[in-house]
Amino acid sequence: MSWLKDVIGTEKAIIAMCHLLPLPGDPYYDKEKGMAYVMEKAREDFLALQEGGVDAVMFSNEFSLPYLTEVKTETVAAMARIIGELKSEIKIPYGVNVLWDAKKSLDLAAATDAKFVREIFTGVYASDFGIWNTNIGETIRHQRRIGAENVKLLFNIVPEAARYLADRDIKDVARSTIFNNRPDALCVSGLTAGSETDSAVLKQVKDVAGETVIFANTGVRLNNVEEQLSIADGAVVGTTFKYDGKFENHVDKARVKEFMDKVKKFRSSKGL
Known about the structure:
Layout: H1 3-7, E1 13-19, H2 34-52, E2 56-60, H3 73-86, E3 94-97, H4 102-112, E4 116-119, E5 125-127, E6 130-132, H5 136-145, E7 152-156, E8 162-164, H6 170-181, E9 185-188, H7 199-208, E10 213-216, H8 225-231, E11 234-237, H9 253-269
Parallel strand pairs: 1-2, 1-11, 2-3, 3-4, 4-7, 7-9, 9-10, 10-11
Antiparallel strand pairs: 5-6, 5-8
Helix pairs in contact: 2-3, 2-9, 3-4, 6-7
């Protein structure tokens, strides 16, 4: 039995992404519509996910493109405002993801009582954002300093739009990440948001992960969710819940419900 049952309420859990529009300080922030519009759309998307039946939600600054690896204070402040305003309406577990800054994600989690964070916690990469380095030792010490030690850490070990500088086998990455860093979960991704996670890679990671939870992190859809969940312990789902399954669109509650009905049927068939 993994921590998923205690924290999210079920095994084979579906964490839905609530993608926030560009925020103050972001290049594509709409200054005329302002935060009121960002807040309105965040509420609509969140409620569509919650009412559609997802197990948990993760708030992320998905449209803060192009991403920073050292995120500005105004971004975290805006995200905290949104979650704070929504908090009375949130009935399911939630997490946060401040792209791509592990410490800022933990700061936001501590401030909003989030249950989990997803980040690039380990590794050095050649990426679309330049050379991308991490400092897991300092990050975990920061987590303890701010009182966020109970926040579950979801390690993305196949970063989107990036590749390890060293030529390392994914199984070796999974083994060493688990041994050295004790992650609560490993997330296995495709190349970009919405790109299908390779089932063969997912299985390789699962085979060496032992008791560590494994998430399919991108590209889980209605037509592959059973295959992905037959390997992984859960999935992080964003794009497929949107109108026409397009990344840039808002959430379609009917798509969420159809997907979650299939997931619940799958879980029931497994006695979960």
